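Lab notebook, bench 4. Still working through the backlog of constructs that have no structural model yet. Next entry is a single chain of 356 residues. Request: give me the structure tokens for it.
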Amino acid sequence: MPHKIAVLAGDGIGPEVIAEAVKVLKATGADFSFEEALIGGTAYDKTGHPLPQKTLDLCKESDAVLLGAVGGPAWDHLETKLRPEVGALLPLRAELQLFANVRPAKTLPALLLASPLKGERGLVDLVVVRELTGGIYFGKPRERRENGTVAVDTCIYSKSEIERIAQRAYEIARHRRHNLVSVDKANVLETSRLWREVVTDIAEQNHDVSTSHMLVDNCAMQLIRDPQQFDVILTENMFGDILSDEASMITGSLGLLPSASLSHHKDGKSFGLYEPVHGSAPDIAGQQRANPIAAILSAAMMLKYTFGENDVAFRIDQAVDAVLEHGLRTADIFEKGTRLASTAEMGDAIAGKLAE
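Model written out:
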């Protein structure tokens, strides 16, 4: 039986970069079947909802989900619950129980000069493990009070939510450099005090991994001052959203970085949704200027975390490195002395390296 992948290209540059990820997956020679469905603003325009039931059903019936990007100014006028970022992504994560967001930030050697941290300081290799289905993004109630002049969002975390994301972070750290930093705001927030208590307890069960705690404002500073100190960063939903974007820019471009959103795992494998960390970039949509590498590396993460095909995932990583070493660049990472490639040309080159 082929692995069934739900393909949700979404909005803006999503269809362009996802087409290249699918191209590369096919080039691996592994047995996949692909089924496309609508999501985001495109889905709203055609069905009246950013997450149609048909799309949700397909995701639940599939082995994994490959997502492009959703949203853009064209849908900013919609009421909050129908905006793609809220009406599609949040319920999709909740319905699929995708509680663990894994975002690696790794400098590719060929692109060291693209990092805003010049020289060796820009060589980073870290992973942000972000709790994805709790915290302020999912807390109730969300409301306006006093004739709309006061807004309320509630941040809620339970011990069990913190335990499961912490355990996943320790598993990841155990396969890396055995170092974990838990990030919170325990000097101010009660949810963070619970977070620190629970992570401290979990650390007692994982003595082979070095554990420390850091306040979120200090972590934001340390990521710029000395990013090489970090291996695995464990944190809650909103902090993780911000810190992972900050970490990604150290590598030089949002167009380079993948992500995985994982559910509970069985036999070392997890159902997951895989997507590039960048947005829909409507300003360059349809121009073949987008960088597909983040989407392609997200597909590699799918092979690793959902299908257990570590060797094939490594081959994709190597193919990306080889193409960049040969000087091929999309517009976002183009520099003097390199060759400019379109979205499809970059995908072709990576797929070609795999075929070799």
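Notes after review: Residues 44 and 235 are 32 Å apart (CA to CA). Residues 1-106+254-356 form a domain with the Isopropylmalate Dehydrogenase fold (CATH 3.40.718.10). Flag for follow-up if needed.
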